[in-house]
Design a protein that fits this description.
mainly beta; four-stranded antiparallel beta sheet; 2 helices; 2 domains; Methylamine Dehydrogenase, Chain H
Length: 376
């Protein structure tokens, strides 16, 4: 992969043609791969959205499955894109898209809809799909057929990630209706992962060595990031002093990335590597990291105005140097601050000085017992 450090890839999109073209309200990037391909969606003024791909600076629409809308969720290193689209029957169905081959409907588990969440290195697709009884269930699509993965005794489940061996992780309801993290292996079925003492948990990523990360509720009802190494669940959130933590990605060599949520307005990204946890210094507070690639790049998004930009940052370059945009922003903020200070001094300064002199004179009067006498 040859992505420069701190690269930001924006989706530059245009309104589609028509007698009354819709206004673009927001452009959103959802994922980026090592080749620099960015997938996302255009959101229009009528509330509709369309899946798009930006490759080599050229933006193209992915179309739909016969309906009016579509969106993307991920792209892998082979360029396989997944998401969901409305069909002609106005049902959301998971799709796989490959350049030159178009969009393929992955179907459902007997119900009306399905949604693709993640795509693996070997093009396995996972997500969740409606069943005939009105529930939804995690699925694994191996390129030929969709397989329902079941639950942990409850009604619903959903999958969040898959590795090269077809091992799937996600969350499923148990017999008490609580959402619990699971690991599924073909031929072995679904098993619940050990939690951190709370009622709920979810697994969000798995590497090819079978190491699983996610987040689990603790006994005191906080959310902590965790690592399951195949034998035990390690509490990563206990290493971070504040906020709720959520692990969202793991590389082949075990580096973990995730999010620290201090409150509903602030989120930060962290990386855990060989027992050391640190906050990523080269992402601002409005940026989050969602995954880490096997060659060591953080992949995530950063809110810039009304656009969410996908980008990648190499783990070997964690410097806190400002980007050109950040330098420009700092210059503008400084210029505004200096201009405001000059305005205050020019317009308010004389009155402020007169008020201060009057105050000193009053404080030196008998009205303030014990104050020093004014100097003459």
């Amino acid at each position: 992969m040859k992505l420069p450090a701190a690269i930001a890839l924006a989706l530059l999109l245009h309104c589609h043609a028509g007698a009354a073209p819709l206004r673009i309200e927001q452009n959103v990037a959802t994922d980026v791969n090592g080749a620099g391909d960015v997938v996302g969606e255009t959101r229009y003024s009528d509330g509709s959205r369309r899946a798009v791909l930006s490759r080599d600076g050229i933006v193209s629409g992915l179309g739909t499955l016969g309906g009016a809308e579509s969106y993307t969720t991920a792209i892998n290193e082979q360029g396989t894109i997944i998401g969901a689209s409305l069909t002609a029957a106005n049902e959301w169905h998971a799709f796989v898209y490959r350049v030159g081959h178009g969009m393929r409907d992955l179907g459902t588990l007997g119900g009306r809809g399905s949604h693709a969440v993640a795509v693996g290195r070997r093009n396995h697709v996972v997500g969740y799909a409606d069943t005939e009884d009105g529930a939804y269930q995690a699925f694994l699509h191996d390129g030929t057929r969709m397989t329902g993965l079941g639950t942990l005794g409850g009604r619903n489940s959903y999958a969040t990630a898959v590795n090269a061996h077809g091992h799937v992780v996600g969350a499923a309801h148990d017999a008490h209706g609580y959402r619990r993290a699971f690991l599924y292996k073909p031929g072995a079925g679904m098993v619940e992962l050990p939690a951190l003492g709370g009622r709920a948990s979810v697994a969000t990523a798995i590497n090819d060595h079978g190491m699983v990360v996610g987040a689990a509720e603790t006994a005191d009802r906080r959310w902590h990031a965790f690592l399951y190494d195949g034998a035990q669940t390690i509490d990563l959130g206990a290493r971070i002093s504040r906020g709720d933590t959520f692990a969202t990605g793991i590389s082949r060599d075990g580096k973990i990335v995730g999010t620290i949520r201090v409150n509903e307005f602030k989120s930060y990204s962290f990386v855990y590597d060989k027992g050391t946890t640190r906050i990523l210094p080269n992402l601002r507070a409005d940026g989050i990291v969602s995954k880490i690639t096997d060659d060591g790049q953080f992949v995530g998004a950063s809110a810039m105005g009304r656009t969410l930009q996908a980008g990648a940052i190499r783990t070997g370059e964690p410097s806190a140097e400002m980007t050109e945009r950040e330098k420009f922003d700092l210059f503008m903020y400084t210029l505004l601050a200096v201009s405001f200070a000059a305005w205050v001094l020019w317009h308010v300064g004389p009155d402020l000085r007169a008020w201060w002199l009057r105050r000193r004179k009053i404080r030196g009067s008998p009205l303030f017992p014990g104050s020093p006498a004014p100097r003459h």
